[in-house]
Amino acid sequence: MLTVENANLHYGAAQALRGISLTAETGRITCVLGRNGVGKSSLLRAITGQHPLSSGSVAFNGVKLDGMAPYGRAREGIGYVPQGREIFPLLTVRENLESGYAPLKRSERFIPNEIFSLFPVLHTMLGRRGGDLSGGQQQQLAIGRALVTRPKILVLDEPTEGIQPSIIKDIGRAIRYLRDSTGMAILLVEQYLDFCRELADHVYIMDRGSIVHEGAAATLDEPEARQHLTV
């Protein structure tokens, strides 16, 4: 279980997170929604160690992560798929996947076949440079790279952004499979309401750096929830 308690985060004088508390449980998909600029990506940066909290704490399976570097959090089992994918465009698909070896023991440094079962296109393009892939294929590669690290929780920042509908369905099937077959915890930041409604077990809605709604996915259709999502 991932636990965030009373998290506050600043960029200089600007406060991005205001007393955020949430949990992401093993074997469940937890979705964080909200309009642009409400602090969703800042929350994930705090969880993965990309930006330090001003106060509050983050813990995973009882281990306090406060002050721990991003690579240390990867070793604890946090796999991160950043917004914009951030693959290495001049490296091949194979080399991008192998970059996920960094937190692994030598005996674990191989690409699991499960990744190619989830995303067969990656297997057919192992020798192609990452920058030559389509946006959807790059997103699949970014997820595959995170899975190479053998994560216990997969943290995804808007994986459907700019992706064609057919690949969105593939990504949704992969996320559902990971939850159901491996018991992995999934923390998903998203703006695509239907995607979250179909996948999520539990949802949080953020507005102005705070959690303003929490509940089951079915509660997304309640007026109280929708008022924080409409533009």
Automatic annotation (TrEMBL):
It comes from the Bacteria. Keywords: Amino-acid transport, ATP-binding, Nucleotide-binding, Transport. SMART domains: AAA. Residues 2-231 form the ABC transporter domain. One of its GO terms (molecular function) is ATP binding. CDD domains: ABC_TM1139_LivF_branched (cd03224). Belongs to the ABC transporter superfamily. This is ABC transporter ATP-binding protein.
